[in-house]
UniProtKB/TrEMBL annotation, chain A:
<dbReference type="Pfam" id="PF00005">
    <property type="entry name" value="ABC_tran"/>
</dbReference>
<dbReference type="InterPro" id="IPR003439">
    <property type="entry name" value="ABC_transporter-like_ATP-bd"/>
</dbReference>
<dbReference type="InterPro" id="IPR027417">
    <property type="entry name" value="P-loop_NTPase"/>
</dbReference>
<dbReference type="InterPro" id="IPR050166">
    <property type="entry name" value="ABC_transporter_ATP-bind"/>
</dbReference>
<keyword id="KW-0547">Nucleotide-binding</keyword>
<dbReference type="GO" id="GO:0005886">
    <property type="term" value="C:plasma membrane"/>
</dbReference>
<protein>
    <submittedName>
        <fullName>ABC transporter ATP-binding protein</fullName>
    </submittedName>
</protein>
<keyword id="KW-0067">ATP-binding</keyword>
<keyword id="KW-0472">Membrane</keyword>
Automatic annotation (TrEMBL), chain B:
<dbReference type="Pfam" id="PF02653">
    <property type="entry name" value="BPD_transp_2"/>
</dbReference>
<protein>
    <submittedName>
        <fullName>ABC transporter permease</fullName>
    </submittedName>
</protein>
<feature type="transmembrane region" description="Helical">
    <location>
        <begin position="269"/>
        <end position="286"/>
    </location>
</feature>
<feature type="transmembrane region" description="Helical">
    <location>
        <begin position="35"/>
        <end position="53"/>
    </location>
</feature>
<feature type="transmembrane region" description="Helical">
    <location>
        <begin position="182"/>
        <end position="203"/>
    </location>
</feature>
<feature type="transmembrane region" description="Helical">
    <location>
        <begin position="86"/>
        <end position="105"/>
    </location>
</feature>
<feature type="transmembrane region" description="Helical">
    <location>
        <begin position="209"/>
        <end position="229"/>
    </location>
</feature>
<keyword id="KW-1133">Transmembrane helix</keyword>
<feature type="transmembrane region" description="Helical">
    <location>
        <begin position="236"/>
        <end position="257"/>
    </location>
</feature>
């Protein structure tokens, strides 16, 4: 479960460029729920994800993941609760390490790391099996450096990495945005499969309204650092991308001029 | 080049292999350009020399030297992590300060260790000629260091350190406290360099405050020569490359200086070093250029 209460985030406080990135955001995501988050550039969706991940510490409010109050904990300190896939494939994995070394690193997420060999035969076999499930042929390249893989392959491996160690929540940060359409679809299907099989509490930030409505149980729209739309259940099923745009206009009373938001 | 000169070069190369491995940890694993080594190498030599003269067991003296080196590394890490000073500058500050510290430790610029018992003393009476014993003895220590560092870097803890240098953001997302890793890595790196200094003092019979000048260049030269020869093929190969690079570097220097034809003399050492390192840096580029 995730719960954020009255979150305030201000960037560049006291400077001419001061920006209220999040303004009193309240959001509770139940155990096993899959929530998609949309919003235009600067709406605060990346900041919200950062607040959950620990990259951004709020100036006010409370963040709870599972049963733990993580409001003041940094990224590394709360990593045991948070699995994450980044937008940039280069960020989520370590190019200089091999595929299996990346997996070994992720398998110990949030745990103490000892002096035992990171890649024993048992672990190797386990990693191989998990990578074989991707059907990308990567199980025969376990010793290859990660930077030899394509962006899509890296994201697929990153998804596996996110599930190797237990976590309370899976955060997806526009994780298909940097991929070509075919690979983006593959990664989304894989995401869907992993999330439903493992019943993960998931928050996915996306630029794509289509993705936001097609996947998950609930959709939240941010604008100007506030939640302006929160739909789930039947009302969400009937919702079309066009409705979303219309709703957005009505709520904000302004015309939509951000093309990025319209990309289906 | 005489046989004694050759084995002398191998011996010196093995001593500096510790520096090369330390530099590899800082520059390659942690991606931390660390010049502290120019101070921690003579620090290791100074601490060992002073302790041995005071009657301390030479192995313990070398151990204390490692602790002193680790402390120097931690100071650099703290300047960088806690006080946000640029890594290169942080290491230069520590290096400068260590020059004075080393003078304080020794009480004078140079301490002689002639006739004192060293780690090598017990091995001299076993029938082997002295110029074989020394490289053999140091070679065994280097082997131990290579194996320990290799196993460490391939352990869970070592992976965390490698990830810190390669992709700190990812490392943090995986729960790695990257600041702690920088402290740990700099401590290990400079402890190894200081141990090199301790061996240097014990094999050469003196500690000198100026013996640290250019240590970083020699260490980097070894790392780069190793990479040029063996390529990037995993941790173990890289560590072997450090050792090999360090030895070959010394032999190349020895050759350059002992070839009368070139007309070089001992004072040209730094120039020859610069030329050699430049070669090692440019050679891989030339090869790639030729292939394309």
């Amino acid at each position: 479960m995730i719960s954020v209460k009255n979150i305030q985030v201000v960037f560049g406080k006291g400077t001419p460029l001061q920006k209220q990135a999040l303004n009193g955001v309240d959001l509770t995501i139940e155990q096993g729920s899959f929530v998609t988050v949309i919003g235009s550039n600067g709406a605060g969706k990346s900041t919200l994800l950062g607040v959950l991940a620990g990259d951004v510490l709020p100036s006010a409010g409370q963040v709870t993941i599972g049963k733990t109050d993580v409001t003041r904990k940094g990224t590394a300190a709360r990593a045991g609760l948070v699995a994450r896939v980044f937008q940039d494939p280069l960020t989520g994995s370590c190019g200089a390490l091999s595929i299996e070394e990346n997996l070994a690193l992720a398998a110990k997420r949030g745990e103490a790391r000892g002096l035992m060999a990171a890649l024993g035969p048992k672990r190797r076999e386990h990693f191989r099996e998990r990578i074989a499930e991707l059907n990308l042929g990567l199980e025969n390249r376990m010793g290859d450096r990660m930077d030899l893989l394509s962006g899509g392959q890296r994201q697929a491996v990153s998804l596996v990495m996110a599930t190797l160690a237990g976590s309370e929540v899976l955060l997806l940060d526009e994780h298909t945005a940097a991929l070509d359409p075919g690979m983006a679809e593959f990664v989304m299907n894989l995401t869907q499969k992993i999330v439903s099989e493992r019943k993960l509490t998931t928050m996915m930030v996306t630029h794509s309204m289509r993705q936001a409505l097609d996947y998950g149980h609930r959709t939240v729209m941010l604008h100007g650092g506030e939640i302006v739309l929160d739909v789930a259940g039947d009302s969400r099923k009937e919702l079309q991308v066009e409705d979303l745009i219309a709703m957005f206009r009505r709520i904000r009373g302004q015309t939509l001029d951000d093309d990025a938001l319209l990309i289906g | 080049m005489s046989q004694i000169a050759l084995w002398g070069a191998v011996e010196l190369g093995l001593v500096y292999a510790f520096v090369a491995i330390g530099v590899f940890l800082a520059f390659r694993v942690l991606d931390f350009p660390d010049l502290t080594v120019d101070g921690s190498f003579p620090l290791g030599a100074a601490v060992t020399a002073v302790l041995i003269i005071a009657g301390v067991n030479p192995w313990i003296a070398a151990g204390v030297a490692m602790v002193a080196g680790a402390a120097a590394g931690i100071v650099t890490a703290m300047l960088n992590v806690r006080f946000k000073i640029l890594n290169l500058l942080a290491s230069i500050l520590t290096m400068i300060a260590l020059f004075s510290v080393n003078l304080r430790v020794m009480g004078k610029p140079n301490v002689a260790l002639i006739n004192a018992d060293t780690m090598l003393s017990p091995f001299f009476g076993l029938g082997l000629r002295e110029f074989y014993v020394r490289p053999l003895f140091i070679g065994v220590l280097v082997l131990v260091a290579v194996i320990v560092v290799w196993r460490f870097l391939e352990s869970d803890a070592g992976l965390a350190m490698r990830a810190t240098g390669a992709n700190a953001r990812m490392a943090r997302a995986q729960g790695v406290d990257t600041n702690k890793q920088i402290y740990l890595g700099m401590a290990i790196s400079n402890a190894l360099v200081a141990f090199g200094g301790a061996l240097f003092a014990q094999t050469n019979g003196f500690a000198d405050v100026t013996s640290g000048v250019g240590t970083i260049v020699v260490g980097l030269a070894a790392v780069i020569i190793g990479e040029t020869l063996l390529g990037a093929r995993g941790i173990l190969i890289a560590l072997i490359g450090c050792v090999l690079g360090s030895i070959l570097y010394r032999i190349a220097i020895q050759l350059a200086l002992s070839t009368d034809m070139l007309g070089l003399q001992a004072s040209d050492l730094n120039f020859v070093t610069a030329v050699l390192v430049t070669f090692a840096l440019v050679l891989p580029r030339l090869r790639r250029g030729g292939a394309a």
